[in-house]
Amino acid sequence: MRIAVIEFESSAHGWLQCLKGTDMNQESKASEQEMLDEYDFSGGVRGKYVGRVSQGSNVVVLDPDVARVFTNSESVNQALRALVAIIDSQAAKAERR
Fold it and tell me: Where are the domains of the chain?
């Protein structure tokens, strides 16, 4: 599990702008979009590793205050497993009533 921490205010616009790098209102410049001559992808295979990435990866963006407590995927998984155990226990108790 990979954890990405992006520190912004709780604004979807700011988060999306970080991912895209531009605003939707900005015009793209043709000179920035052109491929340089030294890049040669003629031997490349499109989508070669896409199956590996989607197979076992979940990217979760943590708010900064949560990321300060859970600094790695192991600590997040441990806390979530404990929470699942509590939920299962409470559900079992509720069924017995």
Answer: 2-32+44-96
